[in-house]
């Protein structure tokens, strides 16, 4: 069974601060996706990374896939209150169709 | 274009009853997956359908079942409901299975079993 562990579970910061969320596994994944979920809604896909060492940027968000494709990180620069939400990483494998293994999530609160 | 539509949004059922949840994927998306989200277990994979065939199934008891229709719409059914089945049930669609396209999720159906 593949597992993904996210840390930290909770994060409360002030507007303007930087933060990093980690997603770690002992298993190799073909791809790693990051989602953000707001209360009462389904998760929204932020990015998919598929190559070991890959770095993708989405405005103030930077996503990195580990060289061995076992871990990933999400870095947010100058966080804003609109970044508040539940961040989820999810790993997929090419031989498992669209089935994803989700991490437990990081609940981020950015205070103005 | 319309997103993934799940109905109903909220549902309250009694232990022992059964329930059917519905999902309409994004137009043109042919792969539909279902997940259960609870505070304790997070998001857990239930099943994936493509071309009316179940391609993968998660580690859930046989009380959980699903199907997909020729227009790609999907339903999932839970029989003999238990209190522990209370959860947010999320449907997600993608163009095709595999290739890690990434999901588009619906807003979910919040099921409460009393």
Describe the structure.
The complex is a heterodimer of chains A (112) and B (114). Chain A has no helices and eleven strands. In chain A, a hairpin with a 2-residue loop joins strand 6 and strand 7 (61-65). Helix content of chain A is 0%, strand content 53%. Chain A is mostly beta strands and 112 residues long. Chain B has 114 residues and is mainly β. In chain B, strands 2, 4, 5, 6, 9, 10 and 11 form a seven-stranded mixed β-sheet that branches. In chain B, 38% of the residues are buried. The mean pLDDT of chain B is 94.
Structure summarized in a few sentences:
The complex is a heterodimer of chains A (112) and B (114). With 112 residues, chain A is an all-beta fold.
Topology summary:
The complex is a heterodimer of chains A (112) and B (114).
Chain A (H helix, E strand, L loop, with lengths): L4 E3 L2 E5 L4 E6 L6 E7 L6 E6 L5 E4 L2 E5 L5 E6 L8 E8 L7 E3 L3 E6 L1
Parallel strand pairs in A: 2-11
Antiparallel strand pairs in A: 1-3, 3-8, 4-5, 4-9, 6-7, 7-8, 9-10, 9-11
Chain B lengths: L4 E3 L2 E4 L5 E6 L6 E8 L3 E9 L2 E5 L6 E5 L5 E5 L8 E8 L9 E2 L3 E5 L1
Parallel strand pairs in B: 2-11
Antiparallel strand pairs in B: 1-3, 3-8, 4-5, 4-9, 5-6, 7-8, 9-10, 9-11
């Amino acid at each position: 069974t593949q597992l993904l562990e996210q840390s930290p579970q909770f994060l409360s910061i002030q507007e303007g601060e930087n933060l990093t969320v980690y997603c770690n596994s002992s298993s190799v994944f073909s791809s790693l996706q990051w989602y953000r979920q707001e209360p009462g809604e389904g998760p929204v896909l932020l990015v998919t990374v598929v190559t070991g060492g890959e770095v993708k940027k989405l405005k103030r968000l930077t996503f990195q896939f580990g060289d061995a494709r076992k871990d990933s990180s999400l870095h947010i620069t100058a966080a804003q209150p609109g970044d508040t939400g539940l961040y989820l990483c999810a790993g997929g494998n090419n031989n498992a169709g669209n089935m994803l293994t989700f991490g437990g999530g990081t609940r981020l609160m950015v205070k103005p | 274009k319309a997103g993934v539509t799940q109905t109903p949004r909220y549902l309250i059922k009694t232990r022992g009853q059964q329930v059917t949840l519905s999902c309409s994927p994004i137009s043109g998306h042919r792969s539909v997956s279902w997940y259960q989200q609870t505070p304790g277990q997070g998001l857990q994979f239930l099943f994936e359908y493509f071309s009316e065939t179940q391609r993968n199934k998660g580690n859930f008891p046989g009380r959980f079942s699903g199907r997909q229709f020729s227009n790609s719409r999907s339903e999932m059914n839970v029989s003999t409901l238990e209190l522990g089945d209370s959860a947010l049930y999320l449907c997600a669609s993608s163009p095709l299975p595999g290739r890690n396209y990434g999901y588009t999720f619906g807003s979910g159906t919040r099921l409460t079993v009393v």
